[in-house]
Amino acid sequence: MKMDRPYVILNAAMSLDGKIATKAGRARISSPEDLERMQKLRASVDGIMIGVNTVIVDNPSLRLKALGRDIQPVRIIVDSSLRTPPDARLFAFTGKVIIAASKKADPGKIKDLPAKAEVIIAGESKVDLKQLLKELRRRGLRRLLLEGGGNLNWSMLEAGLVDELTIAIAPVVIGGRDAVTLVEGEGVPSIEKAFRLDLIDTSRCGEDVLLKFKVRGDRHE
Predict the structure, then answer these.
(1) Could you tell me the CATH superfamily of domain 7-215?
(2) Would you state the pLDDT for residue 63?
(3) What is the C-alpha separation between 185 and 151, in angstroms, rounded?
(4) Are the beta carbons of 101 and 83 closer than 8 angstroms?
């Protein structure tokens, strides 16, 4: 069956207790080997998606280092209110940047963004992720890498828009009620409504354990 949206891979590195950052924010959890794996994964997709909170707190470049590919994957920011800083690092490198906003966003903020930023309006008060992904597929994006953070991971899972999870588990424990976990958001009310996964591969990646899952399509609503 032909998909009307990109195939989505949620990729993350987390501690043994499920944290993707410390309570202070950004933290390099991945081993050097996992960072190399992540670059190869980025080279295999058409776009990389993150939430605006990740841009504000971590300020990543999402840059693909030389791996035999001249064109950078499209960098996509889910930003309902257009809070993306105009001086964010991801604007400093070559390649297309798409900012997905909602109709409630102030149009005046668009003029402050770098010229390379393209704004897509999808949704009323917050970004309609299903509408956004259909638009990305219409623009030729077939494979999309989701790199969080925790709230966007939740929203994508809740909308049924994640096909695969690739999770590197580092041999560290971070702790902290204010440290972001792999999936945040509202959460499910009962285990019966949890997102069900099928384990498809396990391996070592440096000192990390790499787990790959497929998301089942039979979740009970």
Answers:
(1) Dihydrofolate Reductase, subunit A (3.40.430.10)
(2) 87
(3) 5
(4) no
